[in-house]
Design a protein that fits this description.
Elements lengths: L3 E6 L3 H12 L4 E7 L2 H11 L3 E5 L7 H11 L5 E6 L2 H12 L4 E5 L20 H19 L13 H4 L8 E6 L3 H9 L10 E5 L5 H12 L3 E4 L10 E4 L5 E7 L2 E7 L11 H12 L3 E5 L8 H9 L3 E5 L8 H8 L5 E3 L1 H23 L1
Parallel strand pairs: 1-2, 1-3, 3-4, 4-5, 6-7, 6-12, 7-9, 8-9, 12-13, 13-14
Antiparallel strand pairs: 10-11
Length: 369
């Protein structure tokens, strides 16, 4: 297998060298070229033919967002990973980049590999060793995931027999898990939910603190429903959408006849906090069979064990298909373990959620009338 060819785009000579050294330590990756600004990047892509581009957001002249827009016009399928700082401005710019077609992002510690030009100094261009290791591991993992070949997969049967024998319970909550590609997938999904959506929605999107709050604010501006970052003790009501805060697990807890959010800083699961498994497991414990779980695009396998908990409790699981996923790790793992009831393109998932919730609640009402 040929090494993956990477083009590094950053206006800092030191950071280009640091990133080059980090990537060169992996035998499956080669730094095919570097560029110091957006104009150079656009000129170098046809020369070096990279498999993936790493792109700094803060650059003079043509910045990362402008460069990304041009890359997407010329190379719509070329994976691009943005580098951003853990600041409010960096988080907003990262969400802008994802909305414009960036494949993923990596954040740099403020004391290390910062991309914010206003924060750069001689010290900030000399990254901490532990921070460098963390960036290296995250970046290499994302590069290999985004560049992995997509093998043809058989279609999933409409409904496995093991599921069809269960009575269809009323849906009282929708739990969603996603990671790489999730912000755009969530944008599509939440805009399909009507203003009278009858149940609460709880979401885990793998993102750091600050990013999740800004994501909730963006989705709130696009949705007919109220979208907020989760807070401990908040009571779940119909038509609300809650997003787990970065670096915190979010759970659903039953208190008598009410359901409330729990927030904790317990150990990571699947190297994630928040983790989809934690949310799904708690939803199955609190709501039993009345859970509709949705697994969207994402790297890794977070959500698989939680989906098993939902299935064991009698709930349902639907997942995003490979063709519309940025990375089919999370939904693909659920399918591979035989836990998915159905697989849908992203464009159809929102409508399918509405259909299943409405149909199940109508059937339950008719059975009790």
């Amino acid at each position: 297998m040929k090494p993956l060819r990477i083009l590094i785009v950053d206006d800092s000579v030191v950071l280009r060298k640091v990133l080059g050294n980090l990537l060169a330590s992996d035998p499956e990756i080669v730094v095919a070229g570097t560029a110091g600004n957006g104009y150079q990047a656009l000129a170098r892509i046809p020369e070096v033919k990279p498999d993936l581009v790493t792109l700094d957001i803060e650059m003079p002249g043509m910045d990362g967002l402008e460069t990304l827009v041009e890359i997407r016009k010329l190379y719509p399928r070329l994976p691009v990973i943005m580098f951003s700082s853990l600041t409010e401005r960096g988080a907003k710019a990262t969400l802008d980049a994802l909305a414009r077609g960036a494949s993923d992002y990596v954040t740099k510690p403020s004391y290390g590999l910062t991309t914010d030009r206003s924060e750069r100094s001689e010290r900030s261009d000399r990254p901490d060793g532990a921070a460098s290791v963390g960036v290296r591991e995250e970046l290499i993992r994302k590069i290999k995931s985004l560049c992995a070949p997509r093998a043809p997969r058989p279609r999933l049967a409409p409904m496995p027999a093991a599921f069809s024998t269960r009575p269809q319970a009323r849906v009282d909550v929708v739990a969603i898990g996603t990671s790489t590609g999730g912000p755009n997938a969530l944008t599509v999904l939440v805009q399909q939910l009507p203003a009278d959506f009858p149940v609460p929605v709880v979401i885990v999107q793998h993102m750091p603190p600050l990013f999740t709050r800004l994501l909730a604010e963006r989705l709130n501006n696009l949705s007919r429903l109220e979208v907020r970052e989760g807070k401990a003790g908040e009571r779940l009501r119909r038509g609300q959408i809650w997003i787990a805060p970065g670096d915190q697990h979010m759970t659903v807890v039953r208190r008598g006849a009410e359901f409330v959010l729990g927030i904790n800083h317990d150990a990571q699961e699947n190297s994630c906090r928040p983790a989809v498994d934690v949310l799904f497991r708690s939803a199955a414990q609190a709501y039993g069979a009345n859970v509709l779980a949705v697994v969207l695009t994402g790297m890794g396998a977070d959500g698989t064990r939680g989906s098993a908990d939902v299935k064991d409790a009698g709930g349902e699981i639907i997942v995003q298909d490979e063709a519309s996923s940025v990375v089919w790790g999370m939904p693909g793992s659920v399918v591979a373990c035989g836990l998915a009831h159905r697989v849908y393109p992203l464009a159809d998932i929102g409508a399918e959620v509405v259909r299943r919730v409405s149909a199940r609640r109508a059937l339950a009402s008719a059975a009790h009338s």
